[in-house]
Amino acid sequence: MKAGDEFATRLKAYEGRRAAVARAGRDPVNMPMIRHWCEAMGDTNPAYSGPDAIAPPTMLQAWTMSGLVGHTGRTHAYDDLLGLLDEAGFTSVVATDCEQEYLRPLRPGDEITFDSVIESISEKKTTKLGTGYFVTTRMDIRVGPDLVGTHRFRILKYAPIRRAGREQPSQPDRRQKPARPRPVVNRDNAGFWEGVEQHRLLIQRCTGCGTLRHPWLPGCNACGGPDWDTVEASGEGTVYSYVVMHHPPFPAFDPPYAVGLIELAEGVRMIGNVLGVPYDKVRIGLPVRLEFQEYEEELALPVWRVQEAEGMQGADT
Questions:
Q1: CA–CA separation, 262 vs 237, rounded Å?
Q2: For the segment 275-289, what is each residue's pLDDT rounded down to a tens digit?
Q3: Which residues on neighbouring strands pair with residue 293, listed in sequence order?
Q4: CATH of 3-160, one of 2.60.40.10, 3.40.50.2300, 3.10.129.10, 3.40.50.720
Q5: What's the predicted TM-score (pTM) here?
Q6: Peptide bond into 172 cis (omega under 30)
Q7: How far, CA to CA in Å, does 281 sit from each of 42, 246, 261, 277, 284?
């Protein structure tokens, strides 16, 4: 048997092994967590409040999280699998996607338990990041004996691509800056990025209740309607909140720089770089205007330039 075949056989032996058994949720389903979730998401659906409230379905995984204290019922199979991949040189990891299935709503007072299994390990795959294996785990969530939902989570464990004939620099080489990471485009947000390519900032609008929303979603978070059209943003906004990025350093960027949560005139909020003033002069409430900045071939991104900044010396980031 070839070494590669032997390694693949060792990996496949982990399929079906339990990663967690009969773990219990740290807290029962409860209204404070539901309220915090809805406030953070801007979700005003009336189904999530009042005496007959249910939990938002997308909170499914939230009830399984252990915080800093950890859970009992853990097995070593998943850690052993990742260790085996590390030893073979597949030392990097990136989360690729997750899928959830909802069988019935969760309600305040429900106490959940869950099991997790290593569902599948792919054949060796070559990606733009490097060569490695996709590992999928499935979590089954129950209330009493009843299955209420499943959560599948997939990662790629890979060996990063090394450029032939080049040493990895200990510090970023700013003479040849690496390409900026590309945005993740999927079936839910493709229309937004098509608009950006045309230098148009498109906002989803529910055709049922007229609610505008961003980021783009497959359904309305106000009325649940699945149908939508778009409106084009005027380009006016204000800095609602912001952070100044110092770490971690990444070769494609030049920290420090300001990233703002911008409230558009239309009422939705989105994130983008704030330009036109030094990073330490950005303040909540500053008026900004939309621009589209070309970074590399076939990459344009919406950014926000501070208005009425006469007399302030700034540098673009």
A1: 6
A2: 999 999 999 999 999
A3: 301
A4: 3.10.129.10
A5: 0.55
A6: no
A7: 28, 15, 15, 6, 10
